Amino acid sequence: MAIELSYKKTFLHHINPSMKFIIFVGLFIGLLLIHNPNILFYTCIGLLLVYFLLTGYPFVLLLLFASPFLIIFLSSTITMMLFGEGQTTLFQYGVIHVTEESFYRGIHLGMRSIVFGLLGLLFALTTRPVSMFYSMMQQLKLPPKIAYSFMTAIRLLPMIAEEFSHLKKGLKIRGMEYKKGIHGFYQKIQLFTIPVLAQSIRRAYRIAIAMEAKQFTGNRDRTFYYQIGFTRYDTYFVIFLLATLLITFYMSEQLPILQVKDVLSL
Amino acid sequence: MSTIAIEKLRVKFPEEESFLFKDFSLSIRKGEKVLILGPSGSGKSTLLKILSGLVPKSMEIPIKYTSREISNSWGFVFQDPDSQFCMPYVDEELGFVLENLGIPHDQMKELLHRYLVEVGLELEDVHIKIERLSGGMKQRLAIACILALQPNTIFLDEPTAMLDLEGTAQVWETMQRVARDKTVIIVEHKIEHVIDFIDRVVLLDEKGNIMMDDTPKVIFEQSKQKLKEFGIWYPSVWHEYRHAKTEINQPINQSAETLMKMEDFIGYHHKQPKIEVSNVEIKKGDWISVTGENGAGKSTLLQAIMKLIKTNGKIDYPLVKNHSDLYQRIGYVFQNPELQFVENTVYEELAFSLRKEKLSEEENKKKIEAQLKDFHLLNEIHKHPFQLSTGQMKRLSLATVTITSPDILLLDEPTFGQDARNTFRILEKLTRLWKEGMTIVMVTHDPMITELHATIVWQIKQGKIIHIRDKVNLREEEEVGQVGDRIIL
């Protein structure tokens, strides 16, 4: 079961993965500290533009990937609106009671989850795991032992998926009928996890031995098949990022969508 | 320096009562090509890992010896093509080995091309996913990887056990070319292809004692009986099996009742049509052998019949009343039996198969024990299916499927990867079931099995049955694809 997606490489694919990683982690933390929904709104717009225009994947595929975030947006927004606390009533109908505070906080929370989701997707779609770990070994001095463990584990994933589908067929052949409800769930876990885990552990152990047989020692002094450094694309990216941040802040000051500056101090 | 030797080796696995090797000594000269033979469980594979130094350096097995000389540069090819690579692409895997050796980056591209050419893997683009290679190609990639280590000794641990005939031939042809001046130590069950390559055979018994240590000629002439006992595929084994078998299979039951009929039947994999059958019948008493190259669609055909994949077109099962009955009336044994076990003991595994027959506990027990006895598994009755050896697992999966006496038995490579003894055991068992009236459809790579057992041969090519040979009525027909335009692959 091979999942291969076709895409065009854009400059986002050429950025040094370690730098990309650090910047994205920085953005994640930074966004946690922002309580102004206007900034989040413009960040959201900016990220959507980057996501749809600069990742190099077909539009339909991008929509498909992003669709879960719409659900997360709606669910977190609505939950916060309905159950959040507040003083100023905005809308009341029976048990439904929405206050102004909870309304804004809901919108804010929803946008934040979208932004987080998009950032994660952006990183995942434009970074090959192998390149990331090679870069981390070279720029961030990640021990090869850890880097190769991760790369091997990623290689195992499609094999596990394939085994899973074989197992499903195997159980069908045996005429397995699953119980209903929670018991069925427990039964499935039992039937599927044990064989898949047993096989994976065995396979991982064999691969580890094969790696040592190929004289892998985990030492730090090694050469690299992929030499990953910094290029002009990294400069472009930093400039692009700074510009986007500036525009976002500027727009949120000049053209605020919501009349709220801080969702915490409502 | 360049010899490999071990003196007074002792190995004892914690859970075992007795020693596996007791005061075992062996010495191998530089450049020698040695084949280690023995029954399963004789520790051949462990011995190979000890001689290479992988035990105890990478694998913790308690061993003791008075002296040991190991090679300072060696390569190891393992049995399973899918669990010896750590990177997703061919070039990256070779790159990984070159990195381990500290080869400068700018020499890597050229070197990895050279090693790939040496093993006959001339790929258009070396940046190709390893999972897209065939088994034989994967094992040749493994050889390319060890060539990069520039070894003077090569260890081969049943490198072709999971390959078909073609892959096996490719691997040994490659080894003969690249390992001429190297020391080679081999563990292998299928010796037909290695026989010209080796100049010494070490024969072990169950406890890991050396029974014989001589040239191949002497061993194969003098200890054929032992080889047979140990289940080794020595060159004339099929010949003798055929000799012992008095009759060619003749359908016992000529009622010619149709069990299954396919018309313009198509099986899909990932929305692509992978197998197309224009018009074929399976009659009671047939023993059909489905043959063809790797990826031709043989297993897909079986899966389509069982409705495990998406299908289209017409398939009739006159005997099957409703859908849930399908899996009762048609038994299917996977190539990898491990994936069709559902219970925690061998006994429960069979009880699960019988659950729909609603027998009393007494009857159940009687039936299960008889079946286990029949499949030589009675001693394993309380074990977990995963604790069994591969041969035992295969027999258990056959036992679970046949205990309900289905009308048709579908088998995907029933003897694949089995030693000679197990293979013949399985074939004998199948022959008996068939004589009792079971219809068999089996996918097999082995021309000898087709030759000796099948009554009808379906040859599949690029997703179509291109040729049907009825061995009993001596009739052949070329299947003309009527659905032809929807091309497969």
UniProtKB/TrEMBL annotation, chain A:
User: Which keywords appear in this protein's UniProt record, sorted alphabetically?
Assistant: Membrane, Transmembrane, Transmembrane helix
Protein's membrane topology:
Multi-pass membrane protein
Cell compartment(s), UniProt: Membrane
Is ATP-binding one of the keywords? no
Q: Which domain of life is it from?
A: Bacteria
Its transmembrane ranges are 21-54, 60-83, 114-134, 233-251
Query: What Pfam families does UniProt report for this protein, alphabetically?
Result: CbiQ (PF02361)
Q: Name one GO cellular component term.
A: plasma membrane
Tell me what this protein is called: Energy-coupling factor transporter transmembrane protein EcfT
- This protein's species is Gracilibacillus dipsosauri
TrEMBL record, chain B:
Q: Which GO terms describe its cellular component?
A: ATP-binding cassette (ABC) transporter complex
Q: Which domain of life is it from?
A: Bacteria
Question: Which molecular function terms from Gene Ontology are attached?
Answer: ATP binding; ATP hydrolysis activity; ATPase-coupled transmembrane transporter activity
Task: Give the matching Pfam families.
Answer: ABC_tran
Broad class of the protein's primary localization: membrane
ABC transporter domain location, by residue? 4-231, 260-487
Cellular compartments annotated? Cell membrane
Signal sequence annotation: none
Under the heading CDD domains, the entry gives: ABC_cobalt_CbiO_domain1 (cd03225)
> Which SMART domains does the annotation name?
AAA
Q: What does the UniProt keyword field contain?
A: ATP-binding, Cell membrane, Membrane, Nucleotide-binding, Translocase, Transport
Nucleotide-binding found in the keyword field:
yes
Q: Membrane topology per the record?
A: Peripheral membrane protein
Stated family: Belongs to the ABC transporter superfamily.
Query: Can you say what this protein is called?
Result: ABC transporter
Organism in which the protein naturally occurs: Gracilibacillus dipsosauri
